[in-house]
Amino acid sequence: MSLIWQFPLTASFAVFMIILFPFMLLFFPHAIDQYFIATPGEFQPLNWILSTFFHSSFSHLFSNMFYLMILGRVVENRVGKVRWLLFYFMAGFLSVFGDWIVRGFLLGDTTPVVGASGAISGLACVAALLSPFRFPLTKSQTIPFPVFIFAWMSIYSDITNLFARDYVAHWAHLGGFFSVFVTAYFLDQRERKEIQQGFLLNLTFFTLTIILLFFINNR
After folding, report:
1. 172 has pLDDT over 80
2. How far apart are CA 158 and CA 162, in angstroms?
């Protein structure tokens, strides 16, 4: 347990969402549709934020909390609590807002969206950009680990399944992922430079991986 609470903000958010889900189902089920579900095409700014704290099922909840506990602690370790909150809420808001525009107005799809996936996609991008090869066990100890894989797998899955009828908010995930480049404008010059360097590092490593796979498949 002490390892979990080494990064208290990440752990607190996970615990809060785990408690919130059954609490709302038991005591305020009538408020879920009104405040925690975001519908594309409907102007619901409060729902855009609150929907990032609620989930559609227990499996959906625990799946997201697994990724939050991994990626959130990476980001908290690299940028601290204040920046963590900025990245989370910007990713959460822009993910639902982007989904609202694309599906609500361009595609005419009004399937509701709910869950922390968009915000976690934003954290995945930050983690891949700022700590692609290191995972923090504690505040003072890190180990070699391919953190970037989580981001790469996420964006690959979302891009290849954009128009699939699988009830996964792929557009929201992409909005959260790319929200980092919007959030960067709220950071100082040094932090923006770190993000740019992380992007170039990931792009270089990704390109080399594609070239390597090409030669392996055509040898």
Report:
1. yes
2. 6
pLDDT higher than 90, residue 108: no
Structure tokens at 49: 């934020």
Q: Which of 216, 104, 217, 111 is nearest to 165 (CA)?
A: 111
- Whether the CB-CB separation of 55 and 116 falls below 8 Å is answered with yes
Number of residues that this document lists for the chain? 219
pLDDT interval class at 1 (50, 70, 90): low
Average pLDDT, the chain: 91
Closest to 116 in 3D by CA, of 56, 162, 179: 56
Encode the chain in three state secondary structure.
Answer: CCCHHHCHHHHHHHHHHHHHHHHHHHHCHHHHHHHHCECCCCCCHHHHHHHHHCCCCHHHHHHHHHHHHHHHHHHHHHHHHHHHHHHHHHHHHHHHHHHHHHHHHHCCCCCCECCCHHHHHHHHHHHHHHCCCEEECCCCCEEECCCHHHHHHHHHHHHHCCCCCCCCCHHHHHHHHHCHHHHHHHCCHHHHHHHHHHHHHHHHHHHHHHHHHHHHHCC
Give how far the C-alpha of residue 107 lies from the chain's centroid of Cα atoms, to the nearest Å.
Answer: 23
Residue 171 pLDDT exceeds 80: yes
Amino acid in position 92? G
d(CA 171, CA 98): 7
